[in-house]
Amino acid sequence: MQVDIEPATYLAQAISSPSTPKRLVPYYQQFNNFYEHRLWYQLTTTIELFLHDEASGPFQIDLYHNFIHDFASKLNQLKLASIAISVARQYTDGNQALEFLTKLTTQLDTPKTKEAFVLATMESAHFKLLLGDNEGTKEAMDKCEKVLDQLDSVDLVVHASFYRVSGDYYKAKAEYADYYKSSLLYLACVNIDKDLQSQERVQRAHDLGLSALLGKIYNFGELLMHPILESLVSTPHSWIRELLFAFNAGDISKFDALLPALSQEPILQESSGFLRQKICLMALIEAVFKRPTTDRVLPFSIIAAETRVPVDEVEILIMKSLSLKLIRGTIDQVNSTVSVNWVQPRVLDRMQIDDLRKRLGDWSDRVSLVGDLAQAQGGPELFVQG
């Protein structure tokens, strides 16, 4: 790495050096022009284009230390943080990358640069996580969360970094529900087609699928409706997508048919007992949900048939669903029934929405029928407003 060299000298050397790819030379020429005229916005934009050029990787560290560092204070500090993050990723030694970003983070810890501070801090936490410093990563997450809570508006790139690194932390800790939540929030901050490469989309969908299955999550319709899940189609992981739909519908037959595929994911195979209980709970929720509110007193025998558990284990299943707050109701042990007066709100898939539409249509028809009957028997005076 070159040090103590004037920016103009550095640019001249880069332009004339035979090691500089020809496609990068125009960038250096523009750098020189914008730097001479102090056109910081145009210079920032050109630097961003340079960093996105695949050929620029080996030259980014030198560019920062010999050129960008000279006028860093002149740039939009959030843009500066983004530029520095790209540069940090060029280090082959994670400790060097962390040291580089930590210096910048200290400089950005001011009242006017909180967004840039959070961005640099979370990306520093990314390298801490790679280096096995889980505690340091969690400290950074907690600190940044407090800062974000105090800001009125936050750039999406900052939120995306926060949720991505948080998700990576929860993945490392095998905290499935927290990973699921953070990862979905991350996806809400990015354009999956432009910001994620194909392999990244598949990996993200794969990890989200596993977290939905293994976490104490009983409503993942939001994931089923998200386009990220389509990344699994026509891949070796497509069965995970099918399994998610089976769980959401409480389809035990489909679950049983997909059981052999669990061997492809040892963590799922090891959790087969939990998954069996979860699909039974999902089947119970679906059995309640698809019934009209006037018909929610369910005999244990019906629940046993819907969930495929022995009748003498139905009460335990119901108590489990009550403790998880999936349903609310009362158990009649004498008559072996459960009366359900509430079921957990759900994000519905298209088939469930269509079923709900039909039920609402039936309800509307019944209301109209009752109204017509009342009017025919009691006369129009019943409908006169007082």
Following the backbone from N to C, one meets helices and strands in this order, namely HHHHHHHHHHHHHHHHHEHHEEH
Helix percent reads 55-70%
The helix tally amounts to 20
Strand order in space, largest sheet:
1-3-2
How does this model look, in words?
- The chain has 386 residues and is mostly helical.
- Helices cover 64% and strands 4% of the residues.
- It is built from 20 helices and 3 strands.
- The chain has helices at 7-16, 25-36, 40-52, 60-66, 77-88, 94-108, 114-130, 134-150, 156-172, 176-187, 192-195, 198-214, 221-224, 238-249, 252-258, 266-270, 272-289, 300-307, 314-323, 350-378; strands at residues 297-299, 327-332, 337-343.
- Strands 1-3-2 form a 3-stranded antiparallel sheet.
- Helix 3 runs parallel beside helix 5 (77-88), helix 7 (114-130) packs antiparallel against helix 8 and helix 7 (114-130) packs parallel to helix 9 (156-172).
- The protein starts with 6 loop residues before the first helix and ends in an 8-residue tail after the last helix.
- The model has no long low-confidence stretch (mean pLDDT 92).
Strand and helix map with partners:
Elements lengths: L6 H10 L8 H12 L3 H13 L7 H7 L10 H12 L5 H15 L5 H17 L3 H17 L5 H17 L3 H12 L4 H4 L2 H17 L6 H4 L13 H12 L2 H7 L7 H5 L1 H18 L7 E3 H8 L6 H10 L3 E6 L4 E7 L6 H29 L8
Antiparallel strand pairs: 1-3, 2-3
Helix pairs in contact: 1-2, 2-3, 3-5, 5-6, 5-7, 6-7, 7-8, 7-9, 8-9, 9-10, 10-12, 12-14, 14-15, 14-17, 17-19
